Automatic annotation (TrEMBL):
Keywords: Hydrolase, Metal-binding. SUPFAM superfamilies: Metallo-dependent hydrolases. GO terms for cellular component: cytosol. The keyword Magnesium does not apply. This is LuxR family transcriptional regulator. A divalent metal cation 2 binds at H128, H154. The keyword Hydrolase applies. Belongs to the metallo-dependent hydrolases superfamily. TatD-type hydrolase family. It holds the Pfam family TatD_DNase. GO terms for molecular function: DNA nuclease activity; hydrolase activity, acting on ester bonds; metal ion binding. It comes from Brevundimonas subvibrioides.
């Protein structure tokens, strides 16, 4: 079974053909998808997808780009929404200092709110990080010092040092279509060093379509290309990569019953 651990199926890019996209994913062998919340104003759409489809689960949270609209959000708000059926993670959340679409201190504050929700619910935290390695490491460490929480460094493209520190804190990592990009040798180098039993795969669709679909809209049906890239990078057979990532996925997202 293929698993796409990070889909944005509520995105407007799927408004014309969402059901066909989901059908193509199933035809391609994708047995599970995690639909990711990027802001509370679209959480109802995200949650409705998980309620409507037995093979789609969801998270609740706000992307760092959206932090400026979530400064009043509390951990109580997230914990309450996380109590709904089929919500299996907190996020995505984190720091993005590449685009800086929200002020950095607001990104950090909203990220800490998500960490508190993960600590209180025991649900895994889906972390987005870009060009914020030192601040990310510091906030993760500060959070772990208060109370343990499990977390996933999604679509990981940041530095080797942050990856090492996160791995020490028990992080899971997810690999995306970027691993198939010709120029992404630095990303592949970091993937080679990730803990073998804590790697999963994702499309992050509609963004970041893997080769040979690069440049087009991405969809969950393409996650097999990501899995193959991971297998090639790690020197695993395709079967081994599938078995390892499936085990890692269900260990992390332990609110999802294993079929
Ligand atoms: Zn992200």
């Amino acid at each position: 079974m293929l698993i796409d651990s990070h889909v944005n199926l509520h995105a407007h890019q799927f408004d014309e053909d969402r059901d066909a996209v989901i059908a193509r994913a199933r035809e391609a062998g994708v047995g599970l998808m995690v639909e990711i919340s990027d802001k509370l104003s679209t959480f109802e759409a995200t949650h409705a997808l998980a309620m409507a489809h037995a093979d789609i689960w969801c998270t609740v949270g706000a992307h760092p780009h959206e932090a400026r609209d979530h400064t009043a959000m509390t951990a109580d708000d997230l914990v309450a929404l996380a109590g709904r059926p089929r919500v299996v993670g907190i996020g995505e959340c984190g720091l993005d200092f590449h685009y800086d679409l929200s002020p950095r201190e607001e990104q950090a504050r909203v990220f800490r709110t998500h960490i508190e929700a993960a600590q209180r619910t025991g649900l895994p935290l889906v972390v987005h990080t870009r060009e914020a390695d030192a601040d990310m490491a510091a906030i993760l460490r500060e959070g772990q010092a208060k109370a343990p929480f499990r977390f996933l460094m999604h679509c990981y493209t940041s530095g080797a040092e942050l990856a090492e520190q996160a791995a020490e804190m028990g992080a899971w990592f997810s690999v995306s279509g970027i691993a198939t990009f010709k120029a992404a040798e630095a990303v592949r180098e970091v993937i080679r060093a990730m803990p073998a039993d804590r790697i999963i795969v994702e499309t992050d669709c509609p963004y970041l379509a893997p080769v040979p679909h690069r440049g087009r809209r991405n969809e969950p049906a393409y996650v097999g290309h990501v899995l193959q890239a991971l297998a090639d990078i790690r020197g695993w057979s395709r079967e081994e990569a599938e078995a390892r990532t499936t085990d890692a996925f269900f260990t992390l997202f332990d609110g999802i019953p294993r079929p």
